Amino acid sequence: MKTILQAENLTKVYRVGSVDVHALRGVSLDVEEGEFLAIMGPSGCGKSTLLHLMGGLLTPTEGRISVDGEDMTAASDARRTDIRRRKIGFVFQRFNLFPTLTAEGNLRLAERIHAGGRDNDKEAEGQRREVLKLLKLEDKMHHKPLELSGGEQQRVALARAVINRPAIILADEPTGNLDTENSAIVLNMFQEMNYRFNQTIVMITHNPEAAAMCRRIVQMRDGQIVAPSTGVQL
Ligand SMILES: Nc1ncnc2c1ncn2[C@@H]1O[C@H](COP(=O)(O)OP(=O)(O)OP(=O)(O)O)[C@@H](O)[C@H]1O
Ligand SMILES: [Mg+2]
C-alpha cells in the first residue's frame, strides 16, 4: 500500500476582521492509494477546509500536505497548480460550471486544461463517452447549465472532475443537493471509478448511506478528527 495523500498536523486560521477563526486545530490524516474514504461531522467543523487544503486550493497556517510524495506546502503556486491539474479532480459543494458553455464545452475545457492546452485525442473521447454513459448524461451534452436540472448540473460537475481519470478525487458533499435517484447515480459512479481504476476518493458527506459505501469514515468535530482515522472499517 502506498500513501497517496498525507496531511500532517494541519492548522488553519481564517482572519475575519479582528477575529481569528480556528477552522482546523491539528489534523493528521493518511490516505492510501485506492481508498474510498468519507469525512463526516457537523456544519462548520472544518471538513471543506481540510479538503481544500488537501487539494492545494488553500495553504495551511501550519502543517504539511503531500500528494503522491510531493510536498504541496513547500511548492510554489505554479507547482501546486500543476500537481493539482495532473493528479486531482475536485467536486465542489457548489457546481462551479461555466454558465456560457454547454455541458460538452465544460468537459472539453477540463480536458484541454489537463492536456496543457493541446487538443484531445481519441482516448480522451472514449473516456468521455464512458463517463457520460455511467452518469446518464449522453443526451444532455448540448445543454448549458441553466438548461439542466440541479441533479444534472451536479452530474456534469462530477463528470468534469473525473473525465481525466485523476489519481485522487476530492468531493465536497457530492450528493448534498440530490434526490435519491441522482444520489444513487453519483455514488455508483464513484464506486465504479474506485473499483475499476483504483482511483482514490475522499468524500465529505452528511448522508449515512453514502458513508456506508466507504471503507473508512473519518469523523470531525471542532477542527479536529475525533474518531480514529484508521480502523473504523465497515
Ligand atoms: N474563507 C473563510 N473565511 C473565514 N472563515 C471561514 C472561511 N471559510 C470557512 N470559514 C470558517 O471556518 C470554519 C470551518 O468551515 P468549513 O467550511 O471548513 O466547514 P464545513 O465542515 O465544511 O461545514 P459545512 O458542513 O457547513 O459545509 C467555520 O467556522 C467557517 O465559518
Ligand atoms: Mg463544507
SSE topology sketch:
Elements: E1 3-16, E2 19-32, E3 36-40, H1 47-54, E4 62-67, E5 70-71, H2 77-87, E6 88-91, H3 103-114, H4 122-134, H5 150-162, E7 168-172, H6 180-197, E8 200-204, H7 208-212, E9 216-221, E10 224-225
Parallel strand pairs: 3-8, 3-9, 6-7, 7-8
Antiparallel strand pairs: 1-2, 1-4, 4-5, 9-10
Helix pairs in contact: 3-5, 5-6
The structure holds adenosine-5'-triphosphate and magnesium ion.
Provide tags for this entry.
234 residues, alpha/beta, Rossmann fold, four-stranded antiparallel β-sheet, 7 helices, 10 strands, 34% helix, binds adenosine-5'-triphosphate, binds magnesium ion
Could you walk me through the main structural features you see in this protein, from its secondary elements to its overall organization?
The chain is α/β, with parallel strands linked by helices and 234 residues long. It has one domain (3-225): P-loop containing nucleotide triphosphate hydrolases (Rossmann fold, 3-Layer(aba) Sandwich). It has seven helices and ten strands. The strands form two sheets. The chain has a six-stranded mixed sheet, with helices on both faces. The chain starts with a strand and ends in a 9-residue tail after the last strand. It binds adenosine-5'-triphosphate and magnesium ion. Adenosine-5'-triphosphate (ATP) binds next to strand 1, strand 2 and helix 1.
